[in-house]
Amino acid sequence: DIQMTQSPSSLSASVGDRVTITCQASHDIYNYLNWYQQKPGKAPNLLIYDASNLETGVPSRFSGSGSGTDFTFTISSLQPEDIATYYCQQYGNLPLTFGGGTKVELK
Amino acid sequence: EVQLVESGGGLVQPGGSLRLSCAASGFTFSLHWMHWVRQAPGKGLVWVSRINSDGSITTYADSVKGRFTISRDNAKNTLYLQMNNLRAEDTAVYYCSTLSGPMDYWGQGILVTVSS
Q1: pLDDT at B101
Q2: B99 contacts in A (CB within 8 Å)?
Q3: Can you list the alpha helix ranges (DSSP code H) found in B6-107?
Q4: I want to staple B60 with a disulfide (CB 3.0 to 4.6 A). Which of B42, B65, B103, B105 is the partner?
Q5: Is the N-terminal amide bond of B102 cis, ω within 30° of 0?
Q6: Contact A91 B46 (CB under 8 A)
Q7: Per-residue model confidence as pLDDT tens digits over B51-81
Q8: Chain centroid, CA B95 distance in Å
Q9: Each residue's pLDDT tens digit, A73-87
């Protein structure tokens, strides 16, 4: 199985801050990576697919980059509505696997 | 409007069975691979199973292989998950999803609690 190591597991930032989350795959997954946002009690919401493509309707402050084993997710200017848990997810190999999540809180 | 609506969850004793359903609308269900993903209380997301568009290919996580069966009825636009020999560690919110970008759709989730 491909392990997805996501860091940090939590972070605290202020409104307007730049937030960066990393995800490392245990094997090459090319660009087969999604980034999801999940708010409490809600289903996950896809933000980025194929490592760097912004899902329709998602604000441009969200972005993703990387390929192979190392990936980065960035919020360029944190907004109050971005408080959530974020997950990376690989679909290059079965079983599909998720990172452990990053809980983003307001400072 | 795209909708995925899960049903069939609830409380079941260890060793028991449940059948989850996921009713789809607002998109061409028969063209999409479909997945089940679960989330134990306070924990992360875990992929459970997938099925191809015509139901001929199914794949499972090792943790549920031999106990869970995924299926679909494209005439009814419905996805199923038959869960047998349930264990306490199967307790989770279960989501159905297309799990694909673009056109990534998720249901609201349904809680399955396995407890005596």
Answers
A1: 78
A2: 89, 91, 96
A3: none
A4: B65
A5: yes
A6: no
A7: 999 999 999 999 999 999 999 999 999 999 9
A8: 6
A9: 999 999 999 999 999
Convert B61-81 to b/e letters by CB count within 10 Å (16 or more is b).
beebeeebbbebebeebbbbb
Per-residue tokens: A35:
């980034």
- Looking at beta carbons, which pairs linking B5-10 to residues 24 or more positions away fall under 8 Å? B5/B107, B5/B108, B6/B94, B6/B95, B6/B96, B6/B107, B6/B108, B6/B109, B6/B110, B7/B110, B8/B110, B9/B94, B9/B110, B9/B111, B9/B112, B10/B111, B10/B112, B10/B113
Query: Contact B48/B35 with Cβ under 8 angstroms?
Result: yes
A43: distance to nearest CA of chain B, Å? Answer: 6
| A97 CA: distance to closest CA in chain B (Å) | 6
B46, B39 Cβ separation under 8 angstroms: yes
Between β-strands B34-39 and B45-51, what pairing exists: parallel, antiparallel or unpaired? antiparallel
Return the structure tokens found at B70. Answer: 């995924």
What is the spatial distance between Cα B46 and Cα B98, in angstroms, rounded to a whole number?
A: 14
